[in-house]
Write a structure and sequence with these properties.
The protein is an alpha/beta fold. It is about 15% helix and about 25% strand. A hairpin with a 3-residue loop joins strand 17 and strand 18. Keywords: Carbohydrate metabolism, Chitin degradation, Glycosidase, Hydrolase, Polysaccharide degradation, Signal.
């Protein structure tokens, strides 16, 4: 059956008078990704229409995994659409998904289609390719004409860019061309969103979203150092981008979170930990809501009742009246009674306060030093206009609190970052030390401890002198780990958790060219002398001295990004130090 524009937008003239001249803004609330069945269970992902409930305001179907510019792209919706292709093509024919899209839209939901994702191989060689592909998207999924429309006469509400690799070439041109094509259909509003990772600026989309008009960004605050649970949570950077750098001054920033502990390598936060964070983010005028990866995870996650998706939506929608900085409609009842405090890790034995952290790259060890800082500010601060303590608002103990050498402490073995160094609670007293030369202290992504690593930009804020101005955890943007950058790969290593004798770290690697990672990937790195790597997800490890060789089995066979966890041991009594970024090599 041929789906022409006459049949697709029939009736738009009749109802065109109700379409406002000014395009509607992108909906606030909850955005849910659907289509990849990341839970990897046949029963975990249901049809799209099953998720058009009160738990989602926007649904993003993913992904288009291969552009094949000038011909037909590849569509992958996992178990939601399999086996039926248009004759003589590799393009899926997804009639039921098309019906579900209309069902969702009739319920007031917006449905977008996402490009990219981790799997596949994609990218543009030029701006002309980006413009050509925009027309392909419009004809296959928008208001254009084609004999091969995967969703039949259903029209998506726009497109999302989840560009995990392949570089930024062509995307600005594609977005601008899509905006031109959208004007051909006055029967509805179309939207363009993007899904950058939280390190700012994003390696793939940073230039794109600062040059082209997007309606919202679904920032992935996971699998990286800037997750919601660590002290380098950087929503404030994204808010600043929205206000001062985005071409669209009404762009919305969404807090992207994993829908369960298995949905990401790191960065998952339970509902009781997310609740105060979401409450705090409502003060930002750019805040739009929360984005969840993905439906197969969040709806089957029973950490909350009846599930994570419903519990999250209750929190987000309850605070929707105060989104965008309007605190006047907040419920005056304090919710801190249900907040969970994430305590920094404690150890079975108290570390030697004279132990030094170590790093590779020839850096000298540093003995313990005492810092001179201004007097600590009062423990209770109220900077956001409500009637409670901002430390309670955060739902977490600040892992970059103001402490001075010799101050009293109650939790032996507890670590905190102090400027670029760190403090350890030893026999009831804080002992302040420095990381090895060239390294700075960072919070682990689970927020429970600290580690030392190479950083780019400035180190941690002077927490003593700045404490009064820190209104929430979202303002405590710490240093950024130095990224590994080569011609074909960029990657970040962030430590998920660490204690006195072990660690877990997540490596997030992305292709900078259009050549994907293959089925087997070899990674080499040089570890500090006090660290031994003992295991890796889906692979094996060999370590000779400080030289580590990791052989990974890429479960996606072909992908533009890789996220994997390494684990190992730390010499007792020492602080984990990350390997030099310059020592990490991807054998491509």
């Amino acid at each position: 059956m041929i789906f022409g524009k006459s049949s697709i937008v029939a009736g738009s003239i009749l109802f065109g008078f109700v379409h406002q001249a000014v395009a509607a803004s992108f909906p606030s609330g909850v955005v849910t990704y659907w289509g990849q069945n990341s839970a990897n269970s046949e029963s975990a992902q249901k049809g799209l229409a099953e998720y058009c409930d009160d738990s989602s305001d926007v649904l993003i179907a993913g992904f288009i995994t291969n552009y094949n510019v000038g011909d037909l792209p590849t569509l992958n919706l996992a178990n939601a659409c399999t086996g039926t292709f248009f004759d003589g093509t590799n393009l899926l024919k997804c009639d039921q998904v098309g019906k579900d899209i209309q069902t969702c839209q009739k319920k007031g939901k917006k449905v977008l289609l996402s490009l990219g994702g981790a799997s596949g191989a994609y990218g543009f060689k030029s701006d002309d390719e980006g413009k050509t592909f925009a027309k392909t998207l419009w004809d296959l999924f928008g208001g254009g004409d084609s004999k091969t429309r995967p969703f039949g006469d259903s029209i998506v509400d726009g497109f999302d860019l989840d560009i995990e690799g392949g570089g930024s070439t062509g995307y600005v041109a594609m977005i601008k061309e899509l905006r031109t094509l959208f004007k051909k259909d006055s029967s509805k509003d179309y939207f363009i969103t993007a899904a950058p990772q939280c390190p700012f600026p994003d390696a793939m989309l940073g230039d794109v979203i600062s040059e082209a008009d997007v309606d919202a960004v679904n920032v992935q605050f996971y699998n990286n150092y800037c997750s919601t649970t660590g002290s380098s949570f950087n929503f404030d950077q994204w808010d600043d981008w929205a206000k001062n750098k985005s071409p669209n001054k009404d762009v919305k920033v969404f807090l992207g979170v994993p829908g369960s502990s298995t949905a990401a390598g790191s960065g998952y936060a339970k509902i009781e930990d997310l609740k105060p964070i979401i409450k705090d983010l409502s003060k930002y005028s750019s805040y739009g809501g929360v984005t969840v990866w993905d439906a197969s995870q969040s709806y089957n996650n029973k950490d909350a009742s009846p599930n994570f998706a419903v519990a999250l939506a209750d929190i987000v929608h309850d605070g929707s009246s105060s989104s965008g900085g309007d605190k006047g409609n907040d419920d005056s009842t304090s919710d801190t009674g249900n907040d969970k405090t994430v305590e920094p890790s404690t150890t079975g034995s108290t570390p030697d306060p004279t132990s030094s952290s170590t790093s590779d790259g020839g850096a000298e060890s540093s003995t313990a030093t005492t810092t001179t800082t201004s007097a600590p500010s009062p423990s209770n601060t109220d900077n956001n206009g409500d009637d409670d303590d901002d430390n309670e608002d955060s739902g977490q103990e600040d892992n970059t609190s103001c402490v001075q050498d010799g101050d009293e402490c109650s939790n032996d073995g507890q670590y905190k970052c102090v400027g670029s160094g760190f403090a350890v609670c030893n026999h009831g007293k804080w002992v302040v030390q420095q990381c090895a030369a060239g390294l700075s202290c960072m919070s682990t992504t689970d927020g429970s401890s600290i580690y030392c690593t190479q950083t780019s930009g400035s180190g941690n804020k002077d927490t003593c002198s700045n404490k009064q101005s820190l209104s929430s955890i979202a303002d405590i943007s710490g240093p950024a780990p130095k990224a590994y950058n080569a011609a074909r790969v960029t990657s970040q290593l962030s430590v998920k958790e660490s204690d006195e004798d072990s660690f877990k770290a997540v490596v997030n690697a992305r292709r900078k060219d259009s050549k994907p990672f293959g089925s087997t990937v070899v990674v080499q790195m040089t570890m500090p002398p006090n660290i031994k790597v003992t295991s890796v997800d889906n692979g094996k490890v060999q370590q000779k001295g400080r030289n580590v060789k990791i052989q990974l089995k890429n479960t996606k066979k072909k992908s533009m990004s890789l996220v994997f966890t390494i684990a190992g041991s730390v010499d007792q009594g020492s602080v984990f130090s990350a390997p030099s970024a310059n020592s990490i090599k991807f054998m491509t």
